Structures
1.
Amino acid sequence: GAGVSQSPSNKVTEKGKDVELRCDPISGHTALYWYRQRLGQGLEFLIYFQGNSAPDKSGLPSDRFSAERTGESVSTLTIQRTQQEDSAVYLCASRGDIGGAKTQYFGPGTRLLVL
Amino acid sequence: AQSVTQLDSQVPVFEEAPVELRCNYSSSVSVYLFWYVQYPNQGLQLLLKYLSGSTLVKGINGFEAEFNKSQTSFHLRKPSVHISDTAEYFCAVSENGNKLVFGAGTILRVKS
């Protein structure tokens, strides 16, 4: 497809379980971002990948959170030993570099509920 | 560090009335500014952006915003709103096109 896609769209898990969230960026976009949106709040930056550079992990809230990206394609965000406060919508965005473009395009998000 | 303040958490307005959603930011360097809209149960969609040049930028759906460097503001305006504009609006700032720092959002409720 032409846009950013994310899967699953919804995920319900039990406290203490691990979850993996997937993001497929727009083809050719070198930059990929993960954000978290808690209920009634704005978006919080989690992690940023740019090409082959070391990712900017400055937004990850704890060492239970990690993310990987293979080349300039798919990324997975993993949350280990989930806690109820991890419940949120996790949004992925990608950005191209053509013409110095600065716009991030967002996927529909994965709604995570930790029981 | 960058920060974004959206001064109103909710803005109720009647259909066909004008609206302004306020956004102020702080940053020690030049920034890029964005407004995104999130319709109920949907993802974020870019409304408009300021990168450089003219301080008045026009976006989709009749929205526009004005960058005011001296007041560090980027308020969003529409001269006449529709019911379909009911959504949550997020202001965001970015240094060098990297990570976005978002405001808390403003819910625009358009009433008939």
2.
Amino acid sequence: SQQGEEDPQALSIQEGENATMNCSYKTSINNLQWYRQNSGRGLVHLILIRSNEREKHSGRLRVTLDTSKKSSSLLITASRAADTASYFCATPIYNQGGKLIFGQGTELSVKP
Amino acid sequence: SAVISQKPSRDICQRGTSLTIQCQVDSQVTMMFWYRQQPGQSLTLIATANQGSEATYESGFVIDKFPISRPNLTFSTLTVSNMSPEDSSIYLCSVEGGVKGLYEQFFGPGTRLTVL
């Protein structure tokens, strides 16, 4: 079963706008990761936030984590057409090594 | 970061046949993971493959349907056996990387399988 849910399922914005995606999870976590998938290809690791961190930045990406609400958000600022992709959150399964559980994903479309 | 390749990148197969997907990593890794992504869905872990031991399968996946080989630390194969249209999916392999204990994963480009 999936660890979490993401919303929205689909998001369509104009270039230059910001895009915010949310992820909720069910169990205690060591960290939460965000991945991007272009057109059904392989996933690319974007950013990882540890359970003791509240916010993390990487370029135009900003991730927040609220462990009390078991939720995370990914903000992409000043979006570009090249940001069009599916975005997934994922969490390692506690005490099961490197296994990841993925959220349902948000399909982002950025229109030029 | 690891560089991972998969073969084939896509295939169209007939019902009842089998397809073997190869995953090659450019460095030695302990664990490799195989995922399935059904159309419009998220990723679901099929199994974890450790070199020198039997693969560990997740609930809902069995060795007879998805046999896995892991002959060395840089290579693994996943076979989709006796295929049906429901097996049409993207199959991805991945390996761990980054800081030890954080379990970041690096993914191959995927194999898009269509079963007619």
3.
Amino acid sequence: KNEVEQSPQNLTAQEGEFITINCSYSVGISALHWLQQHPGGGIVSLFMLSSGKKKHGRLIATINIQEKHSSLHITASHPRDSAVYICASVGENKIIFGKGTRLHILP
Amino acid sequence: KAGVTQTPRYLIKTRGQQVTLSCSPISGHRSVSWYQQTPGQGLQFLFEYFSETQRNKGNFPGRFSGRQFSNSRSEMNVSTLELGDSALYLCASSWGQLNTEAFFGQGTRLTVV
């Protein structure tokens, strides 16, 4: 059974800091999603990765297939980045979500 | 182009009733997947439909069912509602499998009293 673990569960940082959120999974997968959820529930897909690294603006996502680990980085963090970040692994025709990391960026 | 639309946004139902939620995907997307989000369990995968066929299914009881129409719009039905079914129900659409980029709707918040 695939388990998806995220760390940290909660993170408070000052504006401008470099942020790293980690995601580990226990079995082989075909892809990993990083999602952002703001208060009110709306979810935005940030990245879908199957290997390597992707960058979009101030966000960078990496995945190491051998180590079954992915990271989401935010450079020059801003209060508008405050949200819950969720990783989700896709494998065996199922998608399994981590519990999420609640990020709060202080101005 | 228009995003994923879920209706209704909010719903209050009584235990034992049944409920139907609707999801209209992005034009051209043939895959619609459904998810349940609760404070205790987080996000969980319910099922995925592609071209009117259920392609993948999560571990939920048979009270949870769905269907997809020829225009790719999808409905999710929950029968014999229980208090524990209170949750945010999200749908997402994509052009392909679960390992392709997904676009989420705003969700339907269901409260069972």
